[in-house]
Design brief:
The structure holds 2 protein chains of 2 kinds. Chain A is mostly helical. Chain A contains 9 helices and no strands. The radius of gyration of chain A is 18 Å and the shape is globular. Chain A starts with 5 loop residues before the first helix and ends with a helix. Chain B is mostly helical. The longest helix of chain B has 26 residues. Chain B is elongated. The chains are: A mainly alpha, B mainly alpha. Chains A and B meet through helix 2, helix 3, helix 6 and helix 9 of A and helix 1 and helix 2 of B.
């Protein structure tokens, strides 16, 4: 089913009630989505997986409302980002959403089994996520979508449902803050 | 940390490196768990909802038409009490009450 494009799979899932088509969509997008949510949630993998599951469930129940004016992946990111914002608001004052404890513990337990190259890579992703926690959620999301996913400002504005100017501001401020954060790490 | 030495390219290089080494997260357990959590039956597409409403209405009206053709049109007026008179205000009031009951019935079943 890998040669069929996302929109055709959505059509099959909506009009033919074909659950295999939806499963294929999940398989295609789950890894990138989980990784992105993880970066937005400060590296917390279990929280990211939880939000990713909720994202796919919401997308499943609202699949007929997907208008195909954007990419299916952008639509998923838009749902995911709303859920991350909701969690962020409900956890305001609690450290849970930005906590790296879970992922660090999880990574540490697996590091002993991984080779050096893997360890370095895991460390890179973990430390980047950690540095990103110094930014606001909007800065973090905008910066991740721009720098990592290489989406255009317009696409990011559509996903984040904010004006284009705000996207540019979030990216510029996020970039400056992250640069400062990394500079202080290098000094240490 | 794996940061490149040129400060002006630090962020770009860092993100490029992260992009190139982005881990593939295995679908297995994640997808299995998700499939168990999906609602049993997705809501019908809107067009299918309209179509089923139209077919039901058509069937209902056909049955009614058949019954009326077999039994003849009933004289409704003979079932009403003799003292009940018809006037415009009464008809409007009755229509309003019926409309209100219909709306209440609709709202109560809308989310089922």
């Amino acid at each position: 089913m890998s040669e069929i494009d996302d929109n055709a799979l959505v059509d099959r899932a909506v009009h033919l009630q074909d659950q295999h088509a939806f499963t294929e969509l999940v398989k295609r997008h789950q890894s990138a989505l989980r990784y992105s949510i993880q970066q937005m949630c400060g590296g917390n993998q279990s929280l990211a997986d939880d939000i990713a599951q909720e994202t796919f469930i919401k997308s499943y129940t609202a699949l007929e409302s997907f208008k195909k004016q954007s990419k299916f992946s952008s639509w998923l990111y838009s749902i995911a980002l709303n859920l991350v914002r909701q969690r962020h608001r409900s956890n305001a004052g609690k450290p849970a959403i930005d906590s790296l404890d879970d992922s660090i513990r999880e990574a540490d337990s697996t590091e002993s089994r991984a080779n050096n190259n893997d360890i370095e890579q895991q460390q890179l992703h973990r430390e980047l996520a950690e540095a990103m926690t110094k930014l606001s959620l909007d800065q973090r999301s905008a910066l991740h979508l721009f720098m990592h996913k290489q989406l255009s400002h317009q696409e990011i504005a559509h996903i984040m449902q904010i004006p284009l100017g705000s996207v540019k501001t979030h990216i510029n401020r996020g970039r400056a803050l992250l640069q400062q954060e990394l500079a202080s790490w290098r000094m240490n | 940390m794996n940061t490149p030495s040129k400060p002006e390219n630090t962020l770009e290089s860092l993100f490029a490196q992260a992009r190139d080494t982005e881990p593939y997260l295995e679908a297995g357990d994640f997808v299995d768990e998700l499939m168990l959590k999906l609602p049993e039956k997705r809501r019908l597409p809107q067009w299918l909802g309209f179509a089923s409403d139209a077919i039901s209405a058509l069937l209902g009206l056909s049955v009614l038409a058949y019954l009326l053709s077999k039994l003849g049109t009933p004289d409704v007026a003979q079932w009403l009490p003799a003292e009940l008179g018809f006037n415009l205000a009464g008809l409007v009031a009755a229509s309003c009450v019926l409309a209100l009951f219909s709306l209440i019935a609709w709202w109560s079943v809308e989310d089922l």
